[in-house]
Amino acid sequence: MARDQKDYYYRLAKQEGYRARSAYKLLQINEKFHIITRGDSVVDLGAAPGGWLQVAAKLSGGCIVGVDLDGIAPIPGVKTFVADITHESTVNLVKDALEGEADVVICDAAPNLTGAWHRDHAVSVDLARSALKIAKKLLKPRGNFVVKVFQGDLFLDYLNEVRKEFSSVHAHSPLASRKESAETYVVAKKLLTSPVRRGDVLDVQIEHLGKSGDGVAIVEGFAIIVRKAQQGEKLRVKIDAVKPNFAFADILERKG
């Protein structure tokens, strides 16, 4: 008997009509993080054979678009087309299919594995970067993003890249992932549209004090809460965390 035939999620997918066992990974991710809600428009990058599209259609019922280098057999209510997720031209194709922007972008794509782990990991991160780049152009403000990445030396750098762009970011391995697999999923919520990012160093002036007593600076209409700052101070600060409507910063230097 083939190994896959012994696998619980493989058998369950066959019983429940999903095209791939990976469908349960998205179901489990969504149960924990509530990435897709009813009516959401969802884009699946690297969508073949269509298991995640089936789940997205079930969870949302909204506009669902799938993209892959390979053709995808039709799924009721789902738009699919052949395109390369590493190409800029794909963005306009997807936007035309959506007739607007997406609430959620998901990507379970994986590179063709060679068995040379460092190479496979590097290619996986490159693919995830392409997905992030496209997601930022497709998503509405506060949109959500899920992408598969293989663990390795480059993973933390990629995770930090995503953290700069979203309000809430987690690395998560659902139960449906095989125990021996090095894959993990980066689950990111609420795309940021602020003029600042975590790690930015800025020169600011404290315009007033907030309810907590901390100083508040304004950058392009966006509030920066500076811990232990006083009204009127001119400071060099480092952005520590960014939320949809404000950011936190620590003082690096008081400029007098």
Shape: elongated
What value does the Rg take, in angstroms?
Answer: 21 Å
Major pleated sheet: 7 strands, mixed
Summed up, the helix count is 7
In a few lines, what is going on in this structure?
The protein has 256 residues and is of the alpha/beta class.
Structure explained in plain terms:
- The chain starts with a helix and ends with a strand.
- The model is unreliable at 1-5 (pLDDT under 50).
- Helix content is 29%, strand content 32%.
- Helix 3 runs parallel beside helix 4.
- A seven-stranded mixed β-sheet has the order 3-2-1-4-5-7-6, sandwiched between helices. A six-stranded mixed β-sheet has the order 8-12-13-11-10-9, with no helix packed on it.
- It contains seven helices and 13 strands.
- The longest helix has 22 residues, at 117-138.
- A hairpin with a 3-residue loop joins strand 12 (234-242) and strand 13.
- The chain has 256 residues and is an alpha/beta fold.
